[in-house]
Write a sequence for this structure.
């Protein structure tokens, strides 16, 4: 960037992150409530998990594809801003359709929401994929740390606070339209701010667009999805043959162990096959890399899905009725987000001082302990304490795990290897929700005398995944290969 950096460039370059997180957090409250409205108590986990699986896989592909297309955009507005503008305008259409879907009932409402959610992922990631290129495009290397700091502030604590205090109370009182309109307003404002980014048109002639990386990602995503679907069917079959078991303890042990084994196998096989597709024979040269991705995906299965099912967990555990759970769920996510930010800042120093591998292992243990605290007592204060521990662990893990990854990959191909880690982001939500949802539903239907048991057990399964993420580090050696 030849133009001098102005103070407001820090805002305009990063403003859209505020809108993305605000939208995702708002929909994180709206979607589970709508699914619950359409399918009822006994099927909400299963159908919400199905929605999560397909929408996240579409998000993974559309974000990568749109990012590549924006790399080669020669618009006079620059490479990224046209995608942000178009993506946002289409977002507004689909968010409005979600608002109208609140008046629908039954499976017709669910499938309408399902289709709109998929389309929204495409439009939203049209903007998101391009947005990721702004800082590398226009910010000098010596200032990228400061720009990234502002990005972290706008991406995590501020939108979480906004959703908690402004949007969630509206949804909690049954005013879903009000919450969606406020989120749409935020999205429009940050989109307008992004239009002031000092981006220049692409002048140099780039090489022809290479679709090979996207095709590999498509194959990797497709195979991972097939694995998730297959294991999900096995879990549903286990639930089917368990219907005649009358011992609650026996059901907990059977389905709990089945869930842990199913998710662990999906993570292991999904990562191994995906790395094999992406790297080919090179995957055998660096076995530590595969174990690093397993560690990353297993941890994110826990964090992502604790957030995903927070509304249902609070409904069952504390007796909130439907949308009443939206406000406390948003406050819980805000607490977790703030502690993620607080722990992220010093975790780089801690990783240098104690070692990134050791710190990543401690993160898994602390997150597991925080999950245990959160499910131990049906009390909101205790759940907040558990959330604080999970937030601290997650912030440390973000830094420690990534630092460990940079240590073990071959330096000359770091971008190729670390890019595969995107699988952990979308894959975590897909694995945990699609496989876990039916388990929670089973207990809702077959053990109704213990309210919330299914989601307490499901959160326990996610806690075990934190422990398994630490175990996976045994296979990671500090030096590449």
């Amino acid at each position: 960037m030849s133009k001098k950096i102005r103070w407001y460039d820090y805002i305009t370059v990063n403003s859209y992150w505020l809108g993305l997180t605000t939208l995702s957090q708002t929909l994180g409250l709206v979607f589970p409530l709508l699914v619950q409205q359409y399918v009822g108590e006994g099927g909400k986990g299963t159908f919400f998990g199905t929605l999560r699986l397909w929408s996240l896989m579409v998000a993974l592909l559309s974000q990568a594809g749109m990012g590549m297309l924006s790399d080669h955009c020669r618009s006079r507005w620059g490479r990224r801003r046209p995608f942000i503008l178009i993506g946002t305008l289409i977002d507004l259409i689909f968010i409005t359709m979600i608002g109208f879907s609140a008046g629908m009932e039954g499976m017709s409402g669910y499938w309408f929401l399902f289709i709109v959610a998929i389309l929204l992922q495409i439009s939203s990631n049209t903007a998101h994929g391009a947005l990721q290129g702004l800082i590398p495009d226009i910010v000098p290397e010596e200032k990228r740390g400061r720009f990234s700091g502002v990005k972290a502030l706008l991406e995590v604590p501020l939108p979480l606070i906004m959703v908690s205090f402004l949007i969630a109370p509206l949804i909690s009182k049954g005013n879903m339209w009000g919450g969606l309109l406020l989120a749409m307003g935020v999205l429009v404002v940050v989109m307008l701010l992004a239009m002031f980014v000092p981006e220049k048109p692409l002048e140099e002639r780039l090489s022809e667009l290479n679709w090979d990386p996207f095709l590999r990602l498509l194959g990797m995503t497709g195979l991972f999805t097939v694995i998730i679907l297959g294991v999900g069917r096995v879990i549903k079959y286990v639930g089917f043959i368990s219907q005649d078991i009358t011992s609650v303890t026996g059901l907990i042990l059977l389905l709990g162990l089945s869930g842990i084994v199913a998710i662990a196998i999906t993570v292991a096989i999904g990562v191994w096959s995906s790395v094999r597709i992406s790297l080919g024979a090179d995957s055998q040269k660096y076995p530590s890399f595969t174990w690093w991705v397993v560690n990353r995906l297993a941890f994110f299965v826990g964090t992502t899905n604790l957030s995903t099912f927070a509304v249902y967990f609070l409904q069952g555990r504390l007796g909130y009725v439907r949308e009443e759970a939206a406000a406390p769920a948003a406050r819980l996510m805000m607490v977790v987000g703030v502690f993620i930010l607080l722990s992220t800042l010093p975790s780089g120093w801690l990783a240098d001082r104690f070692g990134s591998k050791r710190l990543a292992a401690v993160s898994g243990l602390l997150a597991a302990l925080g999950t245990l605290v959160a499910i131990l007592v049906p009390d909101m204060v205790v759940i907040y304490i558990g959330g604080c521990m999970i937030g601290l662990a997650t912030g440390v893990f973000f830094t420690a795990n990534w630092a460990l990854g940079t240590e073990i990959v071959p330096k000359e191909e770091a971008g190729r290897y670390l890019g595969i880690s995107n699988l952990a982001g979308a894959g975590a939500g897909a694995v945990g929700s699609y496989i876990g949802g039916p388990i929670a539903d089973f207990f809702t239907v077959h053990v109704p005398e213990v309210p919330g048991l299914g989601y307490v057990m499901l959160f326990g399964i996610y806690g075990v995944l934190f422990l398994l993420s630490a175990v996976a580090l045994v296979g990671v050696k500090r030096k590449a290969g």
